[in-house]
Amino acid sequence: MDNKVTFRTFKEGDYETCQIWWEQWWGEEMPVRREILPQDNRCFIIESDEVPVAASFLYVDSSSKMGTITWTISDPDYRKPDRGFLLELLISCIEAEAKDVWDVQLFYTIADNKQMERIFRKLDWYIEDSAPTYGCYKVLS
Fold first, then answer.
1. What pLDDT is recorded for position 57?
2. 127-136: per-residue pLDDT in tens?
3. pLDDT interval class at 42 (50, 70, 90)
4. Considering the domain 5-122 in this protein, what is its CATH number?
5. CB of 18 within 8 A of CB of 32?
6. Which of 23, 69, 62 has the alpha carbon at shortest distance from 46?
7. What are 54-109's pLDDT values in tens digits?
8. Can you tell me whether residue 111 is helix, strand or coil?
9. In what helix (H) or strand (E) does residue 10 lie, and over which residues does it extend?
10. 3-state class (DSSP) for residue 65
11. 14-27 pLDDT, tens per residue?
């Protein structure tokens, strides 16, 4: 039986869903505050049979044609075999949306785990292999 896959922008309740996923994956020390995320039209969810599976966020630099995909997160309880495919499809759909809607011509991201690194490689992203990459961020209050 085939499942219905939906790629869409955020709707009410999606941020709260992502917040739960972030806490499950990373613990309470790294919740992503809503005010630092882009507007809902650049916050994306992929669903399987109307159940959210993963989300990612597109930042677009208004002074250039560069975009960043970041804060990618998935439901830690979703363990079906199509999980990797859905994450890959999420990134591919964001790439297409960024190019077609926001005129993005260059992407930058940090693959902060092996699963995401494999996905970006499969989607023909350049991966710098010469040194480990460390994602560093600081919240300014």
1. 97
2. 877 767 666 6
3. very high
4. 3.40.630.30
5. yes
6. 69
7. 999 999 998 999 999 999 999 999 999 999 999 999 999 999 999 999 999 998 88
8. coil
9. none
10. coil
11. 999 999 999 999 88
The four Cα atoms 43, 22, 70, 60 give a dihedral, to 10 degrees, of 40
Q: Domain residues of the chain, as ranges?
A: 5-122
Is the distance from CB of 44 to CB of 17 less than 8 angstroms?
no
The residue whose two tokens read 């806490």 is: 23
Is residue 98 within 8 A of residue 67, CB to CB? The reply is yes
- In degrees, to the nearest 5, what angle opens at C-alpha 31 toward C-alphas 29 and 32? 140
**In degrees, to the nearest 5, what angle opens at C-alpha 27 toward C-alphas 80 and 33?**
100
In the structure, how many helices (H) and strands (E) does the chain have?
A: 3, 5
Contact present, 107 and 95 (Cβ < 8 Å): yes
Q: Which residue has the tokens 């999980």?
A: 83
pLDDT recorded at residue 39: 95
